[in-house]
Amino acid sequence: MSGPRPWKALAIAVAVLVTATLGYFMTRIPIQLTDGASNMISVADVSAWQVFVGKMTNEGFFRPLMWPPYRLVMDWSGGAYFVWFKAIHVAQLLGLLLLLARWVRVETGTDLAAFLFAVAVLVGGNTFPGAIREAFPINHFLAMAVCTLWVAVLAAGRPRLGKDVLAVLLFAYAVLTLESGLLVWVAAVTAWVLGWRGISRGAVITITAGVAAYLVVRFGWFHTGTPDLVERASGFGFAPMDAADIQRRFGGRPLVFYAYNVSGALLALLVGEPRGGVYRFVRGFEVGPHEPWMQLNVACATGVTLLVAISLWRRRRGWTHGLTHHDRVLLMLPVMAAANAAFCYAYLKDVVLSVAGVFVAAAAYVAMRDALAAPWLRRGRAASVVATAALTMLTAAWAIKFIGIHYSVRKESVSVRKEWAQVDQWLARQEIVLDTPAKRAVKNALETDALTRLPVPPWPRLPWSPGWFDETQ
Amino acid sequence: MRPSERRDPMNRPWAVPLVIVAPLVAAVGFVAAVTLGGAAGMGPFRPDPPRNVAEALALSDSATAVRMFRDGADPAAMYDIRPGMLASDVGTRVRPLSAAAYTSDDDMVRLAQRFGATLLPAEAREVACFLAGKGRTSVSHMISPPDWTPDACGEAVQQR
Fold it and tell me: Is A455 a domain residue?
């Protein structure tokens, strides 16, 4: 094939195929009860504007744009909630993969091979399952990943006024939806510092001013504050802790816990441990043999880190003459990883790192591309065989994780359908009262979807699947 | 490069990348086959849903069981279930409450009972004793009369 076009088209085809298969499994998960149906029921009787205003004054979290889209989509859907929310979710996934393909620039056969690897790293990575399994009707973690990557794509292209406007809008939406929306600003500034000029200096300054305004409104005006120690359960050492445990142990010295979480988040990105703050793999040395999936998690993450480190090391000499596009893609990773890890200070949860996970995948693309083009793959017979074997083992490990995410999503569809079979008991336990026709209509529509419209997707009986697929994600 | 090396396919520029990404291509292909089989209802990966409410309960597919009950499935009738869905020594013709109990899942039993599933006293005793033999007395108590105890099973329990 001559020229980059066919390879770009094939990269798009890969993105579409992966979205189609994963989307098939995602669209078999009913809208979850916890955080899904419950949030939709909570906005059933109020307008989007009322929700926006009401959520401005929440304590600990400033997320006024998180709920209004639920209301708007519910209105637009005319009652077909499941179809609309799932369509949005699948569109988010497709958007993310297409943005990744565009950002990393697939132009040759080697690039396409590296892109396939990047997709496996993104989709099979520990930070990703929450982005397709998390319970909210619109997956905000996936939305943050899309917004941040989109800004990086805008920055990497030619400057245009429309891009500036879009970058500012993406920032505004992201920062008013989740705290990690501030990563859009980090991406815009880092891209500018690295020399990308697709987003103008004026737009970067505007976004930075937006951060200042956000901080003033959040802390000075509404006194929202930040989440405290008792906000969430999180792990420490070798065991998970509930909020009360955390308060008891770190109430007097929260900085220790925060430092543990931030450093743990960085390690999770680099070596796949800890998970949710718990060092399961390390604990495995004490309590017994490791399950294969544990070894796979650590091997996959560490393999990518080594590959990226080699790539950075080999590229460093060229930096005195200026940065190439792929140098910049690589160099975005340390900044985005550190910034994203900082958002895990209060509690460590894999999915909070989903934005960094996208940049890991992009860096993995560059690193694999470099490795495939490296002369040592063809230099001497022995060296070539060893390098090929090592890289093939790495891709084989990621292939298992890629299959595993489908297995995991299928498991989720089984478990959510089970929850819906007990919906009335669940609502009673949560003290959610369906006291208006609108609330009852939402519940009935979602229940019908869950119980009658959605069969569980098939899965071949693989005797080894429980050991090799990470069932904790 | 010597002529013999030139002939070696591993020295062609595309060969090594192809070998390295082969596992990923295979993984994408496998998942695509599962998806297509599932969506089209054909091939080895076609869906195999429960055929009646007892099968749904035996497979712990509570959502399908609820739907079938709501669609009018008789909670007290006997149903044929396919071999392999329950333990080999419990037969293939059961009532919904037996199927639920044999899963040893409290939630399944509660669900069946919520829709009116019952057992004849003799059947209840038989299932309760079977489960007691497996150490699942909590489920045994859920389906048997209030005065039932594992002692009532006598040797049957010990034999299991």
Answer: yes
